[in-house]
């Protein structure tokens, strides 16, 4: 058996001694850890500041792009408006061209055209022929094809050896 006898009395450390012991042994680790945390916080702050600056620059660039593109957008709107104004005119022009092409495609050879007038709804033909049956055949073909809602043959008169006529065609159907 062994006995351990300590003849020295343990000295009770005062509060000041405990604080000094703690500060010499552990406080340095706390300070180092605190400094590392502060360094990370500064790094994070600089990173966030840089992101904010980048975002502000991006917003400024987008504002400049918008300002530069405003005249282009206004010009595009003006062009679109003009196109919308042109569409009905082109439609009407195509309808008149279609009427004209149709009439000329079935126009008989013995008939001679003196005058042709086109307006929005009507096509006026003034002509003559030496053969009355050619005029009659042309008129019936226009009626039978039903490309025009109304076809009226007016003022057929004989002048010498030829027959003069006025033909009015209304409301073309495509």
TrEMBL record:
Organism expressing this protein natively: Candidatus Roizmanbacteria bacterium CG_4_8_14_3_um_filter_36_10
Entry keyword set: Membrane, Transmembrane, Transmembrane helix
Report what the protein is called.
Answer: Fimbrial assembly protein
Question: Membrane spanning segments where?
Answer: 26-46
Q: Which domain of life is it from?
A: Bacteria
